[in-house]
C-alpha cells in the first residue's frame, strides 16, 4: 500500500508541475549609443635627420647629407606648404651648427639632390596638394661648404612648419 501511495504522490506532483503556469524569464533592453568623430588634421608621420658624416678638413670637398619629413592629412587638402626656419643658430641669413665651445659650421639646405633650390630661412621646402590619408615624403638635401673648421661635435635644430 505504501508503494501505491508513493506512486500516487509522485503522479500528483508531476501533474501539478505540468499544470502550473510556466515561469517566464523576463527580458529588458537598453540602447548603447556608438559614435565617433574624424577631425580634419595634418601631422608629421616621420622625420629623418640631416646628419652629416665626419668632416675631414684636410680634403678640399663639401660634405652632403639627405634628410626628410613625411606628412599626412585625414582629408584631402590643396595648397599645403612646408617651411624650414633658420635653425637655432642662424646668423646673418646663414644656418649654422654649433659646438659646445660655441664654434660654428655653416650649412645650407636644398630641395634638390644636385644642391639647387636652396631653402632660405623660413623658406618653402615643399608645396602641393595632399590626398586623404596618403603620406607625402619631402626630402631635403644639406651641404657643408669646404672649410677649416675647429674640432668638435656640432649640432643644430631646424623647426619644420606645415601650413594647410
TrEMBL record:
Pfam families: SCPU
Domain of life, source organism: Bacteria
Record has Transcription regulation as a keyword: no
Signal peptide (from-to): 1-24
Domain Spore coat protein U/FanG, residue spans: 29-161
The entry's keywords: Signal
Protein name: Spore coat protein U/FanG domain-containing protein
Source organism of the structure: Thioclava indica
Amino acid at each position: 500500500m505504501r508503494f501505491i501511495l508513493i506512486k500516487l504522490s509522485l503522479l500528483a506532483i508531476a501533474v501539478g508541475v505540468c499544470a502550473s503556469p510556466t515561469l517566464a524569464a523576463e527580458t529588458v533592453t537598453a540602447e548603447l549609443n556608438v559614435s565617433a568623430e574624424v577631425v580634419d588634421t595634418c601631422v608629421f608621420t616621420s622625420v629623418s635627420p640631416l646628419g652629416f658624416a665626419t668632416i675631414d678638413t684636410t680634403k678640399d670637398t663639401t660634405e652632403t647629407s639627405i634628410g626628410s619629413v613625411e606628412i599626412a592629412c585625414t582629408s584631402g587638402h590643396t595648397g599645403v606648404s612646408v617651411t624650414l626656419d633658420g635653425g637655432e643658430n642662424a646668423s646673418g641669413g646663414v644656418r649654422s651648427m654649433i659646438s659646445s665651445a660655441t664654434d660654428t659650421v655653416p650649412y645650407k639646405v636644398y630641395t634638390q639632390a644636385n644642391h639647387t633650390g636652396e631653402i632660405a630661412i623660413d623658406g618653402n621646402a615643399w608645396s602641393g596638394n595632399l590626398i586623404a590619408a596618403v603620406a607625402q615624403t619631402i626630402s631635403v638635401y644639406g651641404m657643408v661648404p669646404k672649410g677649416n673648421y675647429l674640432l668638435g661635435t656640432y649640432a643644430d635644430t631646424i623647426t619644420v612648419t606645415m601650413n594647410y
